[in-house]
């Protein structure tokens, strides 16, 4: 198993890609803490992982509240008896076009996708460095982070791409590996996809990707097999980045 004995904190784990990552990590031998805004949905994911026999805990945390970031890292580490991996998967999307965007929507997207992830990275890095752990941080960016955009979501992912590359360059000298992933359209609620709907999409493969594809890549990046992939996102976009 690729993550045997590892201890992971997955933020944004209640559905979609985060849920798939939680299941993949448990299957590969990791003990995990799941974080999200709603304990009910987190507990549902926890129940799904039970068949793998791993230790799984839940922490209710709205990542917009960055004042709790350090405490959440500490809580996760205490629950697991240590911490090796932090996955930043929390994110929201707005639907309004540029001329209709309002300040409230801008603030929500930026608070979660940018500020929340930024300070989660900071808290994780400080925990690893202070504990003398060569930890892994994995940020969920997006292929939209490489496309021109006038929408808060696209702009927020530009920020995630940029600060992930900058943080990675700073942290690897301190023994912390930061990697990032850039999914394209994935069959999740965020894409308004539901079970039974077609998966057609105009990319090289003609379909949207599955959350499990992103989860499998996340397992690799979190594992000891990943020795040099840091900073710049790895695309899972079906060619949309070309």
- The CATH superfamily is identified as NAD(P)-binding Rossmann-like Domain
Number of domains: 1
Q: Report, as a whole number of angstroms, the end-to-end distance.
A: 33 Å
- Work out the number of β strands: 7
Largest sheet: 7 strands, parallel
Average pLDDT for all residues:
93
Count of helical stretches: 6
Instruction: Determine the CATH topology.
Output: Rossmann fold
Unreliable residue runs: none
Q: What order do the strands of the largest sheet run in, or round the barrel if closed?
A: 3-2-1-4-5-6-7
CATH C-level class: Alpha Beta
Q: What is the succession of H and E elements?
A: EHEHEHEHEHEHE
Which structural class best describes the helix and strand composition?
alpha/beta
Rg, rounded, reads: 17 Å
Strand content: 5-15%
Q: What is the helix content?
A: 25-40%
Which oligomeric state applies? single chain
The CATH architecture: 3-Layer(aba) Sandwich
Shape: globular
Task: Explain the overall architecture.
The chain is of the alpha/beta class and 242 residues long. It has a single domain, classed as NAD(P)-binding Rossmann-like Domain (Rossmann fold), CATH 3.40.50. It is 40% helix and 14% strand. It has six helices and seven strands, in the order βαβαβαβαβαβαβ. It has helices at residues 16-27, 39-49, 69-80, 103-131, 152-171, 211-222, and strands spanning 7-11, 31-36, 56-60, 85-88, 136-140, 177-183, 234-236. Strands 3-2-1-4-5-6-7 form a seven-stranded parallel sheet, sandwiched between helices. Helix 6 (211-222) links the parallel strand 6 and strand 7.
């Amino acid at each position: 198993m690729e993550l045997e004995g590892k201890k992971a904190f997955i933020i944004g784990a209640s559905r979609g890609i985060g849920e798939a990552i939680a299941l993949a990590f448990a299957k590969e031998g990791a003990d995990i803490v799941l974080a999200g805004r709603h304990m009910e949905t987190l507990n549902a994911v926890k129940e799904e992982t039970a068949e793998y026999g791993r230790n799984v805990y839940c922490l209710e945390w709205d990542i917009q509240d960055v004042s709790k970031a350090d405490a959440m890292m500490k809580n996760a580490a205490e629950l697991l008896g240590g911490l090796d991996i932090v996955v930043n998967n929390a994110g929201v999307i707005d639907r309004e076009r540029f001329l209709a965007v309002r300040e409230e929507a801008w603030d929500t997207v930026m608070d979660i996708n940018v500020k929340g992830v930024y300070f989660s990275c900071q808290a994780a890095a400080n925990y690893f460095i202070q504990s003398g752990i060569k930890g892994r941080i994995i940020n969920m960016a997006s292929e939209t982070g490489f496309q021109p955009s006038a929408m808060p979501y696209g702009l927020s992912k530009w920020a995630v791409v940029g600060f992930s590359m900058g943080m990675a360059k700073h942290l690897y000298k301190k023994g912390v590996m930061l990697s990032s992933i850039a999914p394209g359209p994935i069959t999740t609620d965020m894409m308004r996809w539901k079970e039974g709907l077609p998966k057609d999409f105009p990319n090289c493969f003609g379909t949207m990707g599955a959350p499990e594809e992103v989860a499998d890549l996340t397992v690799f990046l979190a594992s000891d097999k990943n020795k040099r992939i840091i900073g710049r996102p790895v695309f899972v976009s079906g060619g949309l980045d070309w």
